[in-house]
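Record format v2
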Amino acid sequence: MSLIASFEWSFIWENRGVFLDGLWVTLKVSAIGIAGAFVIGVVLGAARAHRIPVLSPLAAVYVEVIRNTPILVQVFFVYFGLSEPPFNIRLTAFTAGWLTLAVWGGAFNTENFRAGFEAVPYRYREAGLALGFGRLMTFLNVTLPIGGRIALPSSINTYISVLKNSALIGPAISLPELTYQAYSLESVSFRATEIYFTLAVIYLAVVWVLSGLIRALEARLALPEAKRVRTRRQQRLREAV
Amino acid sequence: MPLAGLLPDWAGPVFHYILETGLPFTLKIAGVAVVGTVVIGIALGTLLTIRFLPLRAPIRLYIEVWRGLPLIVTLFLIVYALPQTTFHVTFQPWVGAAIGLTLWGSAQVAEATRGAVESIPREQHEAAAALGFGWLGRHVFVVLPQAGRRLLPPLVSLMANVIQNTTLASLVGVTDILFAAKQQVERLAAPPPAGQLEQHGFAIYGAVLVFFFLISFPLTRLAAFLERRLV
């Protein structure tokens, strides 16, 4: 197998620091982007679900614009376009990176959370209001914990996409995250096969481990309601038999 | 051109260049990737419903790998790493980009197809079998046409995604719309005689955003409409 024999693994091991540095930047930029996407998603998702005047239609436009344009063009726009007069907003590559990721993920999350909040039965909110909570407290105590858990699986898929999209932001605006570090290493060493194979393995490991952890978390955070309904139905079945 | 009076002087040659040089590559990549994605994705997704491990395992691996990798890493693997293996497989960059997009898109379509095919009740398979259809005829004439109703909305929105993601080709050396736009931004910013020491990145990248929005928005609206009508 000359394909495998031509690999020089020692080269990867000697340059492990480059990959680790890159992975660290990838995780940092993704974590900030994900946190931003979460906040945007909850706020605008609530605005959409409760049809808050002005904010709700603006959020709808934001969602459509972001979802229907390529993220690569968005990052060029943020990093290069905004640096020009009359804006003169010169962002570092790191700031432009997490900002783009947060705005991109936030648009998808707005839809995720809107669907989640809208799925909360109206009588739950009525119950909250009847207990004397105001609208905001009803949202925080009733709609958010229940709707947020309904929105959890789809919003987690968005977070994984945010992490994967950090890979194209590096080469686009020279942010030294994992993919850009690999790309730079390749341009001085010409060992494309070893480098990109290692890069792919690292991303698959991160994405697969995250997906696995998340599936476990999902099972734990699943609404007790869902479990209870299932057991009640089983009980009824047993009684019928 | 009636619009010419409304645009500033620098804009004419810029957009002419982007449409003349960049657009053909974007269209070629999108065309190949959309067809490849649909054909390969539906075939693999249908095969995945067969309960036979030696067949399922490789398809499952294909889906998990190409869905799990960031698309840009897949493109680097195909365009830069593949020529250096002992097979020395070399593509033109735009072909490599189209293949990478097809791998990614077909993995998504395969997963959606599996769900759609499995949602068709068993009785439909049995009724078709009773009428004398073999496995292929059963799927082509009975199951897939019904699964298609469920599959069509996600397929249309995925096509919008594939078209948006053709822009990643600009990172592996294809002169697509985005790369042509970047060249023009850099040319205008250069000192004379080549450039004009002017910064028009905001306008040019903004125009590229508008271009993709005009293609993608009708597609995602269509997907939402089909979702209400068919599913």
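Chain A touches chain B through 46 residues (CB under 8 Å).
The two ends of chain A are 62 Å apart (CA to CA).
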